[in-house]
Design goal:
Elements: H1 19-37, H2 40-47, H3 51-57, H4 61-71, H5 88-94, H6 98-118, H7 122-149, H8 159-175, H9 183-197
Helix pairs in contact: 1-2, 1-4, 1-6, 4-7, 5-9, 6-7, 6-8, 7-8, 8-9
Length: 202
């Protein structure tokens, strides 16, 4: 009698369709409680997902947080979609709009929640730099380079330093002074700090 080989049993495929929703919930919890106060159970409750689902996908809180922070990079602006008004001030001001401000505030709240952990976790520090800090600096570099190319500002302008002025001042205002970032504050950075630094009048 010929022995019939049984077909190999396939493991249950993991459903990743809810990953974006879960990661978004993780960011909300992180912004509200900070890393130390956050638990995977809290995220499961917020996302209305089973705890077992989260633990299978992310065995530890740090892995969940790193993925959640990394996913924020997917919302980056396409360089082709950046405003091009013909002047540096016009471009910078055009970036000061409600959706941009709200997104920046959320990112800063997330960053605040991560402060206690970033110094102890190099992988998390790298994720924060890539997803929260570098994107805005990259946008600024593009706008400053355009201004150089059209002869509006000196060709030797320190783009790297200029690109970090706004992110640094907004971070200090949020993290240290515990104040919200509003349009008036952002415009004051443009007119009183950035433009004078490149020799332009507001």
């Amino acid at each position: 009698m010929t022995q019939v080989e049984s077909a190999p049993k396939l493991g249950r495929r993991r459903d990743h369709t809810r990953d974006p929703e879960i990661l978004d919930a993780a960011l909300d919890v992180l912004a509200e409680t900070g890393y130390d106060g956050m638990t995977i159970d809290m995220v499961a409750t917020r996302a209305k997902a089973g705890k077992a689902t989260l633990y299978r996908r992310w065995p530890s809180k740090s892995e969940l947080v790193i993925d959640a922070v990394a996913c924020m990079k997917s919302h980056l602006l396409d360089p082709a979609s950046l405003p091009d008004t013909g002047t540096l001030r016009g471009d910078l001001v055009a970036m000061v709009k409600p959706p941009t401000i709200e997104d920046a505030e959320r990112k800063l709240k997330v960053m605040t929640g991560l402060v206690s952990m970033v110094a102890r976790n190099p992988e998390l520090a790298e994720a924060v730099q890539t997803a929260l800090i570098e994107p805005r600096a990259a946008v600024n570099r593009t706008l400053f380079q355009r201004a150089i190319d059209r002869g509006e500002i000196p060709s030797d302008a320190d783009i790297e330093t200029l690109s970090m002025i706004s992110p640094a001042m907004v971070s200090y205002r949020t993290l240290m002074l515990q104040k919200a970032t509003d349009r008036a504050f952002l415009l004051s950075i443009i007119d009183k700090v950035i433009l004078p630094a490149v020799g332009l009048k507001p």
